[in-house]
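hi! just following up on the protien thing from before. the input was this:
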Amino acid sequence: MKFLKKIVWKILNILRIDGIIQLQLKSGLKDDGWFESFRTKKPINKNGEPLAWYSYSFLKFLENRLTSDLEVFEYGAGNSTIWYAKKVKFVKSVENDKKWIDILNPQLPKNTKVVYRELNQTQDYLHEIATDDNTKYDIIVVDGRRRNDCVMFSVDYLTEKGVMILDNSEREDYQPAKDFMKQKGFKQIDFWGMLPVVANNNCTSVFYKSNNCLGI
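and the predicted 3d structure came back as:
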């Protein structure tokens, strides 16, 4: 049996598909549910549960650091809204796609609020974070539209222990936001890796100061 197995794997190696087969049989990608997310085109884990659309390295870093007393604000709603809501006290998101909100609403837990705001000259989308009596948030996630503007405007709405999360931070277009946060005295950690649904690498950056809510 062992000899036959070696022959089979040797043939697969010659055909250059042995790695693909191994990933399907036993791998970190299988454990993380990547194949299921790729098949369904949804950021989910192996059990079909919603995931924030971050790299797996960042998901693993973040999930055990979130606590039930934290409040989160998101620019851009999605599976991340559901994922955060299971771990924190409250999640508020602003979203510019009305049809997407209609799809998302039936899935949202009670400790969430998703607000529709158009991208217009009145800055309603950008300024939504400031509408609740100047409430401040422990985590602000920038994963929607106008990301440079959102980072620069929302930083004043972080709590003293607050952190900023900028997704897709590898894009050169977002360099102004990264430079701005450094000028404001924040340190930066980049998390690279594959993420659900797609096969390319992605970067998510966390900006933080001392005594932050994630214990960095």
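The CA atoms of residues 126 and 150 lie 6 Å apart.
Strands lie at 71-75, 90-95, 112-116, 137-142, 158-167, 187-194, 201-208.
cheers
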